[in-house]
Structures
1.
Amino acid sequence: MTPEEFRTAGHALIDWISGYMETVEQHPVLSQVKPGDIAAQLPSSPPAAPEPFSDVLADLDRVIVPGLTHWQHPSFFAYFPANSSYSAILGDLASTGVGVNGMLWATSPAATEVETVVVDWLAQLLDLPARFRVGGAGGGVIQGSASEATLSAILAARERATAGATNHTGTLGNLVAYATTQTHSSIEKGLRIAGIGSDNLRLIAIDDAFAMVPSALAAQIAIDKADGKVPFIVVASTGTTSSLAFDPVDAIGDICQRERIWLHVDGAMSGIAALCPEHRWVLDGLDKADSFCTNPHKWMGVTFDCDAMWVADRAALISALSILPEYLRTAAAEAGAVIDYRDWGIPLGRRFRALKLWFNLRLDGVAPVQAMIREHVAAAAWLVEQVRADPRFELSAPPALNLVCIHHVAGDAATDELINAANATGQALFTRTVLNGRSVLRFCIGSQATRQHHVEAGWQLLKDLAPAV
């Protein structure tokens, strides 16, 4: 492809993306294809010669789009939002275009310094505690996902608890971690990857709101210490996946500080709500945390992948993850004058992800995101009132922010059938979870295209499909 061909194709692709975003509502939310349908439309052998870009673009519509579940659809009420704004798409395109590897400051100083600055901008916008800000012992970094942030926190906590011994002896059997049944599955996965294992994860009791009970945490820590175990990390959630429960971080933080245990706070979706001053309560107690993460690629519109992670003291994180062969040594790093982000996460290679956050904040600003969050929270509050007024339904969890958990009073079978029937229409998409042993429909309002009338239509769909009591 020549530069001129690239320009022509690039303009056509930008037009295609704009058209897709503008017409996404016309597609069924859930892909209607069957297993193997997409592969059957692709040749079994690679092309023998280059094909015209027009053919590739046509196949985006013919082959790819029918196989998409449309996360940008305004009636996508499943899982969590994954918003993609025009400004962030442009930043992602620029990042791909310059094609740098930001593993070291020296490999592209702009990739490192822009990341440091924009993550600190976000810390200011969220009003994070000073301990996470640039200039002190802590700081921020962009990870690929909250799962990567969690694993990084586990490794840093392991490093601090063992004074680095586990990087030499491999003795991990005495380390124990703490979470709840509502904590994201990435916690257990991270413990497996870190060599600590699922058996050393303690699941702490939850209250009626599905939040961790601090007294139960303290009691379990005492039991483990008496048994010769070494408590090393607690993972608290500010908005769990299943029910959007908020663990009492402040009380948990008191316990962790007293016992010298690393506290990681996972605010993957809901942490972004703190962009609105009235929702800053979602970060209560964060001044006692050792690490925190939230995802601009969920409720903020910064194209996936972009997880912002902060640590109060970067020393343990760097110690856990830094390997320094001769070919990566630089004078600037050895003088302590720069950050090498390869030491802040799992991979060595790093894309210039900061550009999409930089573009987003500069071109759109935070006001549109604040307005979107407020509109979604208001729509969820409206939905809660509708559920309470309909005798066929009941709330399965205390409502919070943009998630409403709904159960059909006829039981699990009726709830499951309702979810399946609604999703099969293609008009909306919901996710099933289980709370207190019961099937639950999650109605998550988070797409940047979602307006009140989409929520009303989604609720009407559920009412039309739900059986009478």
Note: DSSP finds 16 helices and eleven strands in the chain.
2.
Amino acid sequence: MCIMKRRGVSISDFGRTPEGVPVHRYLVANDHGMAVGILDYGGIVTSIVVPDRRGHCADVVLGFDTLDQYRTSSPYCGAIVGRHAGVIGNGRFSVDGVEYQVACNEGPHHLHGGVRGFDKVCWRGEPIETPRGAGVRLCYLSRDGEEGYPGNLDVTVCYLLTDTDELTIEYHAVTDKPTIVNLTHHSYFNLAGHDAGSICDHELMIDADAFTPIDATMLPIGTIVPVAGTPFDFRTPAIIGARIDLPDPQLRNGLGYDHTWVLNRWDGRLRTVARVLELRTARVMEVATTEPGLQFYTGNLMAPGMVGKDGHAYCRRGGLCLEAQHYNDAPNAPAFPSPVLRPGQEYQQTTVYRFNVAG
């Protein structure tokens, strides 16, 4: 059943960190019965409840029942990722000729902000109400040198659930020293329901003529290549599983899809760039963003038998991620849009996950 509640935000306890910091869950509802659960730990989206074509509701994001599971077992489920989402090669980058070393927490490379990225910190949360909907504002000050990044970075992320069934995420950040910033959202979506098994039967469209190939360590090689004639061509809707296991070198390197698509006509304005359809339920999710890239990941590294919400054992490829962001390893690739942020500038990013049903 859907959440039968008028628009608003309710707050409940969700445990404490080992340091004793209380963590809260914000349940945000709209007037249509859609509801989103959000933690002030990691900015984690714990649930998104939406109806199907018959009005039956399901939770369409993977996650866990306890804070300890999110702390110790989660592959970034539902989290805010930063300071720099994706991979940084060998954990090194330079800004204005100064080289910085950050943690190599994914083989030889740096991934998703390091050992204690934005997914593993406590944010300061407060409920918000606007004419468009209700939500949560989350704030965090990342100190100079945290995880090796330069500059004090003051970050605000606003989740807003609208009465048109959109989850809007707005990111803002300012710095007092030149640094790099690349934030994203890392929910694993399964439009049949979080406990429904593989997402390989979902249909996907991505408005991108090119993608960034990776090497065997999943590091982008710094080039941009056309999707035409490859398993990476989703310009017209295609079933995800139809080509995922083809003997393609890039699919072998990613163990499936785990690449950045170079979005068409990028100019920093918000526009729709992807659409996912689950055929049995007719649930549809559209993605709109201001970002130049979209990381499409099919949960290839999900541990078999990972126990999630309601005690359900998730399977490999049980969820898909559509992470709007700059390209992986952008600080080290001159051909990619730069993620550098300077004092006096403001990092701004908006991504919208829009839910409906196919006619």
Note: Helices lie at 67-72, 249-254.
3.
Amino acid sequence: MMIDDGDRNSGTPNDAPLPSRPHQIRAEHLGKLAIPYLRQSTMDQVQNNVGSTYDQRDLADLPRKWGWPESRIREIDNDLGITGTSSLQRAGFQELLRLIDAGEVGLILAQDVSRISRNTFDSELFLKKVVRGGVLLYVHGQLFDTATESLVNLFGLKIQSLLAWLENEQRALRFKAAKLAKIKRGFAVSRPPIGYVKTTRGKWIMDPDAAVQEAIRRIFDLYFRLRSTRKVEAYFHEHRLLFPSRSRGELSWKTITGLDVIRILKNPMYTGDYVYRRTREVRSDNAHHE
């Protein structure tokens, strides 16, 4: 059921039929919020793929054309630059779920289901809530009335959610394989610790700044002599010595902390050997309670 983006007769009163208004839209929907939901996975995409953001913002034109007043169109864009693989860090997605539970949403618009989530658990939870709340859903250029939609069409939405998850998992596997291939050829793929800098060939060399080298050596020398991270930190403070830090190639100096000392002493990269994947990440499902 593709939507025809015909003329924009936004001046027609809400209770009058609009030629371009889809038949699924009823008075109870118009009395609630119409929410365009925007998301892109990384800040790099937000900054360099602005066309996608503009396209997602243009979704707000549809409820205007269909008779929603401006006061009941609420754009949620908190999640621009945040991955869709988990809902834990997505304040916008959490707000969307709260509004659905409160019965305040009549229409949700998204560019596609992958904008809503790339996590099968979150996708299932979202679809369950919109069906229960009778919320209209506009994705992939189609309008779905989740309260009356056929099971076949709702099943299609679930399949699209699974495909979004599969696409993301395949991309992640390709990315990991590419990183491991680079490592086997002797190239570094992680950020160098302070005291080293990355060359254009993906190799690390010692920081050319002699003061940085001296600061790192001083931590090891002091610890072997004092045998205490707290005493190393206290020595730096007592002698007003600063600790180096690099951000995007820019060198700065700051007051050292005990955590800085521990990170230097426990980092195996200072042994001269490149270390990758020395920790294991255990993933668990998000804990959602209704």
Note: Residues 1-15, 273-281, 284-290 have pLDDT under 50 and may be disordered.
